[in-house]
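Page 37, top half.
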Amino acid sequence: MQFGGGISTQAALNAGSTSVTVAESNPMTLRAFRDPVLKDVTGDILAEPRLKVIDYDGRLFLANTGERYDVIDLSLADSVGLSNPGGFAISEKYAYTHEAMLSYMHALADGGVLSVTLWNKEEPPKSVLKLYSTIAEAARTFDPQRAADDIFAVSSYLSTTTVLFKRGGFSAAEIKTLRDYTKSMSWEEVYYPGMPYDGSTAQKILDDYRASIFGSGQDATLTQPAADATAPADPTAPNAACDPTALADPTLDACADTGGDAGPDVLPATALQRMTWHALLTGGWAKLASDYVFDVRPLRNDQPYFAAYVKVADLPLTLDRLDLFQDDWGYLLIWATLGIACITAASLVVLPVIFGWRIVFSHSRGKLGTILYFACLGLGYIMVEVGLISRFTVALANPTVSASVLISSMLVFSGLGSLFAARIFDRARTLLPVVLLAICVLLLAYGVTLSPVLDWIGAYPYAVRLLLCFLLVSPPAFLMGMPMATAMTWLARLGKEHLFVWAWGINGCFSVIGSAAVPIVATSFGLSAVLQWAAIAYLVAIPAFFTVLLPSKAPAIRLVTA
């Protein structure tokens, strides 16, 4: 999964693999490795006869291939710099979603192993817990009876974490081999089948992590909670081995390991990861996720984000301790952008009314309904456009291409819809409400059916995918081109030309608000919710349209006699 710099591919070849398939969706990467200069440095790895190169997204390939693999490896698909949300505050990661993990598991041969490695550079842990919950949920879906036997997970503090899933489960001998190797590499065991677990300090660790973030302004410091003085260094070590007379230390305790030698206490991050796996596979995950300081819900195609860790209810608490949320500044800035957009839009609407425009505006009946109508059109249109750009990345595997296809399709078919609207101007009172209702129904249907449709499209060659995605947008886009043109025409027919500026201005203001709101709605409720909100906007526009059709209120004529 992703060729990248070729390290995983070279490791597989060096290990003696008879056949290696690598999927790389970035053609520039493959072109660079085929460059004559780089060939001398890399040993021309792409020319290796045992290597088969798939030049598109591995997630799409595995979801639609009939081949079965002994090992599927997804290792550090993002650089450590881009793994934090500073550069990409809201970035879709469809390779890590629940649906993607299920595709990988189905592509395994009997006894095959899926290996997923992710950066583990956060304290308190955030992205790794999202990964764990996603893989565990997929494992329970794939093998509901034996999911707990299929997982082996290790981590290295502030480095990486690796989760192994074996189709058919790990044997006792394999578990011993993996544990011995983990110990030799000085990694920390996070989960293995049959791992003992003591949850007596679980709630304390959760409370301590929350206190370390949202304690008093003076006490809140982004440091790990103090270790429990009675926690065993290893879950297999008995508590009776602890020496209660030993001197207290914030990072060490006197708990002996199974060999009787004093050893370091379990790091709170490791203890948290262990309790996470226990809750995920044996029950109690909902409560743990609710009590944890950050949002660590699983990734799905509807919410494919390693982002938005700060819970919405906790947003006001972040204002006086922003230094503790440096990794989340991008997400917090999106909220700030939405606030600025709302304040600016309100100013642009209210100030002209206060300073003179109210005189002209007062001569129009249904003025508030007109404002509402064009606000709904601006909000609904932009939410559909931005929301579908994120959604179509599933099939096109590239956000830039997705944006190009979606924007082009929306503009083309909306333009055709505006052109066709001339045919219904005279019957707008009866036909346009039907059009608005049809838009609402289509958007709700897209929210439910779009994910499987895009998975189906992803199986086709790239050129076909581009064409199908371009056409898939056409039904709602065509209809969405009619309401604006129809309403503007009727404003002119009714002598309300002075409202043109208001119509364009209100529409533009709410387009900006909508574009800022989309990532917040998507991360909080899902991409399908974005389309649902847009559908509601078009539904509200139906009664508002009838106020647009009200005739202008002519000023009273005063007769003066000499």
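Page 37, bottom half:
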Amino acid sequence: MSTPHPDEIATTGARSVIAGIRAALPGLRRSERKVAECVLADPGAVPEAPIAALAARAGVSEPTVVRFCRALGHSGFQQFRLALARDAAGGDACMISGIERDDDIASLTAKVMDRSVATLLQARRSLDTARIEAAVALLAGASRIELYGQGASGVVAADAQHKLFRLGIPVVAYTDPHVHGMAAAIVPADAVVVAISHTGRSRDIVESVARARGNGAAVIGVTAADSPLAAQCSVVLGAEADEDTDLYTPMMSRLVHLAILDVLAAGLAVAGGDEALERLRRTKRSLTAARGGSDRDTAAADTGP
């Protein structure tokens, strides 16, 4: 049974860590389940305890505690302990980081918009254009493109599919872990996989990418640069978003990932030249006709992408 994706766990609200442990229990190893049951029995004691104390109380080794934390999407025990402490202190926290319950609409609008702009500008500064060029070159030479994403990252994968198919590229988005696991097992060597994950620590997507690489397919990772997923990728586009997805619903990271996929789509459109432009025009003409547009509207659609 697959472990819940960190993005999915993060959407459960202020009690996300505890809810995530309960949801993950059936898929954990027996030794990891001992740690989970120990945490669930007394979650308030964990933030104050060293890893050795939790391991002793659960009757397992310290590496087992670390594996348990990583199975939930955390980098290790320290991050898990901090997330659990935030849960205990933030029982009535809002779903969006930085938003308070007493914020009025004007304040929360300004906060969300300002933070979105700041996050995208930070991503622009941190992105390596040489890696973007390498990613576009891989995509341009692919026989087909497969997009893997789960939870909030699945939305990004679906959006990228919507953009890329209009360029005439065979592309599919897999947002279910079992489905992309099966797809990775049969992906051809001349295909390219784009794997999207904020944390890069979801066991399902890391295993799927490893299968795809085993079949010879190149993999572009839109993920954290120091993650297990990044270690499996041919090219990593690792723009970081300052966001705590252990407690809050992913928002800023999703915007960054959407923008990165937009950059790749734009790069492919430019690389495709006149042929790609003509395909974009044809898709626009079909939309104009479907909306009951006039001949004048159709002519306008022919003037550009």
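Margin note: The CA atoms of residues 54 and 209 lie 33 Å apart.
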